[in-house]
């Protein structure tokens, strides 16, 4: 805590949150925003189940079936940009409402699509909403104390895996009896539940401070204090970063302070998209931004490449035709939990950079033997271990990427990194499918390992370690 020019005591948002701890308020917020993450995962996963039935009902080609997934990813590219800029300019709540409404309403309307063209258009709009879903973990992160921020964001990431499991179970129960339209309708239900209770969650106090709304930020912090049965520090919250940091390299701390100071006068007063965009391209952030893009691209590329490899090697497994798809999705989704658990244990102990780089290189190690011909059961085990590691990397990315950007451009920075990641998710199936069709499994593995190795090197080059550090 420090004093302002008038001598009154002040404290930062991080100091307030550290005093209040992780309590009842954050637990309720985790459940609420985690449900949003579940809803987004369900919307992404459902096309794996409805595609074949839709193709059969309307008699469209396999290429037309695949195009439905492609337009969702295309919508995500635009949605990540719009959602990030909107959330930084108008608030985290605005970003949340955008992703919930634009995902939920068109998602429900998809169930009533009279023809293929209508479904295609609606799925593109759903993609716009899904692309802005990175606002959810960022909003949660801004309420969590610094000392446990990493572990709790990894826990938040588990809701995505939970959503894929719930969607597989829902599809298994609904598809054989009621058909694909009912699955589309029921999968959009969580978005509407969130909208009903959306007024309960307050705006981020960090965002309010960055906009000079100190009184409103104080009201939010006082509400958290009441719910957690704790007391705030004496004085008033301030948006000024703490300038004394004995635990970190002073040169690194200075970079953070210079970045925030430069942004305050520009973004807080003008509050326009141009200044927000310029902020994360500033000299102090450009290196981190470009390295982050490389890690996002490689992680998305490897994740979706692994999904296709697992599907290819699992295709010969003897399961009943009507249940094999659901079982495969369930098994591979459960395989993600060990990586998430490992990330949760390490991220607040050894730091973001080491944990992320280690998970990426472990994924490389599990993939490398697949360049040779192995027994099917051994191949599946290695692929599951690799997928677990890449999911752990995703969890740490959800912690680290918002932490390196200041509040004034946080969602914009993460949004543009997500765009690069989505490009990787589009490239992965094209590359993997083309090579596998020509029996080039070795080349598939080498390409993924190369991308992951470069991402692992990038992790060592990040200028900042954010473990336990205040974010501004």
TrEMBL record:
Q: Where is the Major facilitator superfamily (MFS) profile domain?
A: 29-467
Q: How does it sit in the membrane?
A: Multi-pass membrane protein
Query: Where does this polypeptide localize?
Result: Membrane
Q: Major location, coarse class?
A: membrane
Q: Name one GO molecular function term.
A: transmembrane transporter activity
Pfam families documented for this protein: Sugar_tr (PF00083)
Sorted UniProt keywords: Membrane, Transmembrane, Transmembrane helix, Transport
Establish whether keyword Endoplasmic reticulum is in the entry.
no
Asked if Transmembrane is a keyword of the record, the answer is yes
Task: Cite a GO CC annotation.
Answer: membrane
**Which parts of the chain span the membrane according to its record?**
27-47, 67-87, 94-114, 120-141, 153-174, 180-201, 290-310, 325-347, 354-372, 378-400, 412-432, 444-464
InterPro entries found in the cross-reference section = MFS_dom (IPR020846), MFS_sugar_transport-like (IPR005828), MFS_trans_sf (IPR036259), Sugar_transporter_CS (IPR005829)
Q: In its UniProt entry, what is this protein called?
A: Major facilitator superfamily (MFS) profile domain-containing protein
What organism does this protein naturally occur in? Setaria viridis
């Amino acid at each position: 805590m420090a004093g302002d020019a008038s001598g009154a005591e002040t404290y930062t948002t991080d100091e307030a949150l550290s005093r209040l701890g992780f309590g009842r308020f954050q637990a309720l917020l985790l459940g609420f925003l985690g449900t949003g993450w579940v809803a987004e995962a369900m919307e992404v996963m459902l096309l794996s189940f409805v595609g074949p039935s839709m193709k059969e009902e309307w008699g469209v080609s396999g290429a037309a079936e695949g195009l439905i997934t492609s337009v969702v990813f295309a919508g995500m590219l635009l949605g990540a940009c719009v959602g990030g800029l909107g959330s930084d300019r108008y608030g985290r709540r605005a970003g949340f409402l955008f992703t919930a409404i634009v995902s939920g309403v068109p998602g429900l309307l998809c169930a009533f699509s009279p023809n293929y063209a209508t479904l295609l258009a609606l799925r593109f709009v759903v993609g716009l909403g899904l692309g802005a879903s990175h606002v959810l973990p960022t909003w949660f992160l801004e309420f969590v104390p610094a000392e446990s921020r990493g572990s709790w964001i990894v826990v938040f990431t588990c809701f995505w895996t939970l959503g894929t499991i719930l969607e597989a179970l829902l599809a298994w129960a609904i598809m054989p009896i009621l058909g694909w339209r009912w699955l589309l309708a029921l999968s959009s239900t969580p978005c509407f539940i969130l909208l009903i209770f959306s007024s309960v969650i307050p705006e981020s106090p960090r965002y309010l401070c960055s906009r000079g709304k100190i009184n409103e930020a104080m009201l939010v912090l006082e509400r958290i204090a009441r719910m957690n049965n704790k007391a705030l520090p004496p004085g008033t919250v301030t948006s000024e970063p703490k300038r004394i940091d004995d635990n970190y390299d002073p040169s690194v701390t200075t970079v953070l302070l210079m970045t925030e100071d430069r942004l305050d006068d520009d973004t807080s007063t003008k509050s326009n998209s141009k200044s927000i965009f310029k902020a994360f391209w500033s000299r102090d952030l450009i290196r981190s931004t470009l390295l982050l893009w490389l890690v996002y691209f490689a992680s998305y590329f490897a994740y979706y490449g692994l999904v296709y490899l697992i599907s290819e090697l699992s295709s010969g497994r003897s399961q009943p035709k009507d249940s094999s798809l659901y079982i495969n999705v369930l098994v591979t989704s459960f395989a993600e939990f060990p990586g998430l658990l490992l990330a949760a244990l390490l991220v607040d102990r050894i730091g973001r950079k080491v944990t992320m780089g280690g998970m990426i290189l472990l994924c490389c190690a599990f993939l490398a033997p697949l360049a040779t011909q192995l027994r099917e059961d051994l191949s599946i085990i290695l692929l599951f271990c690799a997928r677990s590691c890449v999911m752990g990397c995703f969890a740490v990315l959800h912690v680290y990427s918002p932490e390196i950007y200041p509040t004034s451009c946080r969602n914009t920075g993460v949004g543009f990194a997500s765009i690069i990641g989505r490009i990787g998710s589009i490239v992965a199936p094209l590359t993997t499918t083309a090579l596998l069709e020509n029996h080039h499994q070795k080349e598939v593995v080498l390409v993924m390992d190369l991308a992951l190795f470069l991402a692992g090197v990038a992790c060592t080059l990040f200028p900042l370690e954010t473990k336990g550090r205040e974010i501004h």
